[in-house]
């Protein structure tokens, strides 16, 4: 007898017991005991439907307030990232994305496939085709730099903000705008903005761009691999 057989037998016994209890409950008629009365309470679902019909949702829900809240939304992460300073000089560096497992990875049979402490670089297995541009949306020179750069019309570029209104910039730039997250900033070691992040072989390349006020950058090459 294998170690699994007692467990299987317990499961079968439980299933059979449940079937017996169900069939007994269905087969036996215990009759009627005491006086039977009609149910006079309202059906809960019907009562909710009646209540809903009587509510004027145009007054109960302030749609304009909801729109304003969505338009002015700023994630908590931005409070921490407002401390990221503007770039003081051009700089490029590589970030090793090697990750070390904090716990064992096991298969469906509980066998350890990858032990805790195992290190691997995800970029050795997959490619990241997008380019990330991270900037401060409250810095006019940084926004102007982005508008005049080749990144503004590149569909493979994702624009991320460390501060500013995503709604205003999205409308003025006519493109999607997102907020950077603390996790992303830490992963790519972003210390100054604007920064451009792209894959370079088995590494992520981070380029910090010095942006003088309102200088044209229309001839900047993308330099994508």
Please tell me about this protein's structure.
The protein is an alpha/beta fold and 225 residues long. It has a domain of 103 residues. The strands form four sheets. It has a six-stranded mixed β-sheet with strand order 2-12-11-7-8-9. A hairpin with a 2-residue loop joins strand 11 and strand 12.
Strand order of the largest sheet: 2-12-11-7-8-9
pLDDT averaged residue by residue: 76
- Quantity of strands, as a count: 12
Q: What share of the residues does DSSP label as strand, in percent?
A: 15-25%
- Unreliable residue runs: 4-30
Helical segment count:
8
Q: Work out the oligomeric state of the chains in this entry.
A: single chain
Q: What characterizes the major β-sheet?
A: 6 strands, mixed
Question: What topology does this entry show?
Answer:
Elements: H1 5-27, H2 44-54, H3 57-60, H4 63-71, H5 77-81, E1 85-86, E2 91-96, E3 99-100, E4 105-106, E5 112-114, E6 119-120, E7 131-136, H6 140-148, E8 157-163, H7 166-173, E9 178-179, H8 182-187, E10 192-193, E11 195-200, E12 203-208
Features:
alpha/beta, 33% helix, 225 residues, 20% strand, flat, two-stranded parallel sheet, 6-stranded mixed β-sheet
Short description:
With 225 residues, this protein is α/β, with parallel strands linked by helices. It has eight helices and twelve strands.
């Amino acid at each position: 007898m294998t170690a699994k057989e007692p467990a299987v037998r317990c499961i079968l016994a439980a299933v059979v017991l449940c079937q017996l209890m169900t069939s007994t409950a269905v087969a036996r008629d215990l009759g009627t005991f005491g006086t039977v009365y009609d149910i006079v309470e309202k059906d809960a679902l019907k009562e909710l439907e009646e209540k809903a019909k009587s509510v004027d949702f145009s007054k109960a829900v302030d749609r304009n307030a909801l729109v304003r809240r969505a338009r002015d939304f700023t994630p908590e992460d931005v409070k921490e990232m407002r401390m990221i300073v503007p770039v003081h000089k051009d700089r490029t560096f590589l970030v090793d994305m090697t990750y070390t497992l904090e716990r064992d990875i096991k298969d469906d049979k509980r066998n350890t496939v990858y032990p805790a402490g195992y290190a691997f670089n995800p970029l050795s297995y997959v490619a990241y085709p997008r380019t990330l541009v991270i900037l401060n949306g409250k810095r006019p020179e940084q926004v102007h730099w982005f508008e005049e750069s080749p990144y503004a019309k590149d569909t493979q570029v994702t624009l991320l903000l460390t501060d500013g209104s995503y709604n205003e910039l999205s409308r003025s730039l006519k493109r999607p705008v997102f907020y950077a997250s603390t996790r992303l900033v830490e992963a790519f070691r972003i210390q100054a903005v604007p920064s451009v992040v792209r894959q370079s072989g088995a590494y992520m390349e981070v380029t910090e761009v010095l942006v003088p006020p309102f200088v044209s950058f229309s001839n900047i090459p993308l330099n994508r691999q």
